[in-house]
Amino acid sequence: MLTIDSGGQYLDGTIDTTRVLHFGTPTKEQQDIYTSLLQGCIDLVTTKFKPGTTLQELDPIIRKPLRDLGLSYGHGSTHGTGMYLTVHESFDYTYENNFIGSQEPGYYKENEFGMRLENLVQVTEVPVSNITQSQKLLTFESVTLVPYENKLINNCKLNKSTKKWLFSYYVIIRSLVGAEMIKQGRYDLYKWLIDKTDPTFKCFEISKT
Question: Which residues form the Peptidase M24 domain (predicted)?
Fold first, then answer.
């Protein structure tokens, strides 16, 4: 298992992404933990909240699935993202429209394995008609478009709304990233992308041995 935290500086912004790759057969423990991290990411990215909401108010959402396993992690769940400055900017203010930062739960078992999932997200307004400024709600939109490690996902434990979000996320990845791969003639990478974004969601739960 390999956890990669990678990013870069570009003319239109800075990226910071973490994914886990598994090259063998995961254990049930690894699958349960990874699934809880993914569930936390999706729970947070789909939540709706009022302008001015603080990190401290939303942080329990992304941590809850892992805490339900009796586990936790000792680092922050979010940081701001600089533009040609530091990738990690302190985040001690409130969420407002167009803010871009990370969502990154993780778990690290000493001397055995570590895993973290990190997406950059943008705060956007919830499209609701006929509302006043005081009624406006915000949500998140994922800026990062990188597949997850499907063999580590226990689809049996994902609820219907979570599967719907993941399906839509994979459709967007295929549409945008896949189109760019075809444009560049990278058909080998395109095949990899199609395999990694398989949206069939068959129930695959590793037995405890």
Answer: 1-125
Q: In the predicted model, is pLDDT for residue 121 greater than 70?
A: yes
Helices (H), the chain: 28-45, 55-67, 160-183, 187-196
Q: State which amino acid sits at residue 42.
A: I
Q: Which two tokens stand for residue 81?
A: 């993202």
Domain boundaries, the chain: 2-147, 159-201
d(CA 96, CA 139): 10
Q: Which two tokens stand for residue 25?
A: 């057969």
Reported CATH class of domain 2-147: alpha beta
Nearest by Cα to 162 from 59, 67, 65, 46: 46
* Secondary-structure breakdown of the chain: helix, strand, coil percentages, each rounded to the nearest 5: 35, 25, 40
6-31: per-residue pLDDT in tens?
Answer: 888 777 778 889 999 999 999 999 99
CA angle 21, 22, 25 (to 5 degrees): 165
What 3-state class would DSSP assign to 180? helix
pTM listed for this prediction: 0.90
